[in-house]
Amino acid sequence: MEFVLSQLGGFGGAFYALAADPVTYIYLITSVFLGIVFGALPGLTATLAVTILTGFFGNKIPLDYALIALLGAYVGAIYGGSYPSILLNIPGTAASAATAMDGHPLAKAGRGGEALGLTTTASFIGTLIGTVALLIFVWVLLLISKNIASPEKAMLALFGILLSGTLMSEDLVIKGWITGLIGLAMAMVGLDPLLSEPRYTFDWPYLFSGFQVVPVLMGSFAVPQIIEGLRRVEVGQLVQLQGRIVPNLRTVGKYMPTISRSGVIGTGVGALPGVGEDVAGWVSYGVGKSVSKEGHKFGKGSLEGLLSSETANNACIGGALIPLLVLGIPGSPPAAALMGAFKINNIIPGPTIDPEIILRVVAIMVMASFTMFLMGLFTARIFIKILRIPQTVFLPIVMVLTTIGSFSVGGGINDLYLMLGVGLVAYFMNMMKYPIAPLVIGVILGGLFDETFRRTLFIADGSLSAFISRPGAAILLGLNVALILSQIGAVKRGFRRLMRRPA
């Protein structure tokens, strides 16, 4: 009980410190607005919003303001995807794909205002559910952080890279591992963190500091998305918004069981590393359809179906931050971009992160959710006008912003070459269904793995025994081995035969 009260007190202190600063609201309103715009414009995503703002604000402003800008954009973008889903039948983001199933039929039936008001309310409640779960899991960090040393950090970093590759692969898991290991190899470039000896630099001074995180982020997430958006311009017939947007409280109360269930599902799916908000929306939608008495109405304009998907994809945000902050493993692609912002601010997410950072993140999430709720209810018609902007107009603007953000990190032309090079490689890898997020995670976690693995070997005179003699490291090593073995065909078949064998 004392621990719970202390955490609530810490959250209250963090919330008050942010709320008492007038500058907080400038960043909050601006970032949530930009996030909704990125979510509402088909072809842009939450990942792109967080990535671009990382380039502009990542390490150029105080940490609190940077977190407000990035988390505000994250929350706003996941919600903003509901606008084109409902009015255009074009998901603004992958997270809002399930929302279009019932949102667009409602808009065509003249209930677009009602649908938008309910999605705004569901997004708000879902975000709060995920945030509460994030606050509860702070105690996990405090419990395990006391036993974390270099061997555990190394195995945890490797597990994060392999797990992200496993979960983010569309077809062959080996493709995810390949991209993750490419990122790990990229992290080895530069000066040796222990001996300061140059490695793989080819005597090029630019590479002495290694590959910069922001250009890699921009190249991995932004450039392929912009190219693909220009190749496939989506055009939809905008349905006129009818009805009031402010929701009926009686209707909200009627569907609170659905909203609560979907919030829990979204948080749980988000806590699975590498899954993401789109999966959360579809899983919740499927569960809602199977348990609802009106499941046959799903896909035909069901409010319950609409709330199932939209609550879950926003609850997934808080869930995705749990493995990011506690384990250093992003729960979704936008969380991977957010992790890059942590790194350039010299904050390494994981068991040794300062709990104060988590409390500030929770406080910012609460403020961002309220801002998104109010902005969605009272300025929705502004965002609807933005839907009329053609992709061929805003995507080149986004490319310019991406270039500026990448250039501003180091101020050198080499950062642009890196961004474009990584972007072209990432684009062709996407075409071959190689997931790109593991590459970014490999670049981010690779430095931690490199330093802690080699430090462990130095201390143990080159012996690997430290990874077995320490219980935490041995468990994590076992998880890495089990993860690899689980993808070998012979092992899979043997496990299936063992499970089918009668007791």
Description:
- This protein is mainly alpha-helical.
- Helices cover 73% and strands 1% of the residues.
- The protein is built from 24 helices and 2 strands.
- The protein has a two-stranded antiparallel sheet with strand order 1-2.
- The longest helix is centred in the N-terminal third of the chain and has 25 residues.
- It is globular.
- The two termini are 44 Å apart.
- The model has no long low-confidence stretch (mean pLDDT 80).
Provide the gyration radius in Å.
23 Å
Beta-strand content bin? under 5%
Structural class: mainly alpha
The run of helices and strands is: HHHHHHHHHHEEHHHHHHHHHHHHHH
pLDDT averaged over residues:
80
Uncertain residue segments: none
Q: Tally of extended strands?
A: 2
Helices, by number, come to 24
Shape summary: globular
- Major beta-sheet overview: 2 strands, antiparallel
Roughly what percent helix? over 70%
Sequence of strands across the biggest β-sheet: 1-2
* End-to-end CA span: 44 Å
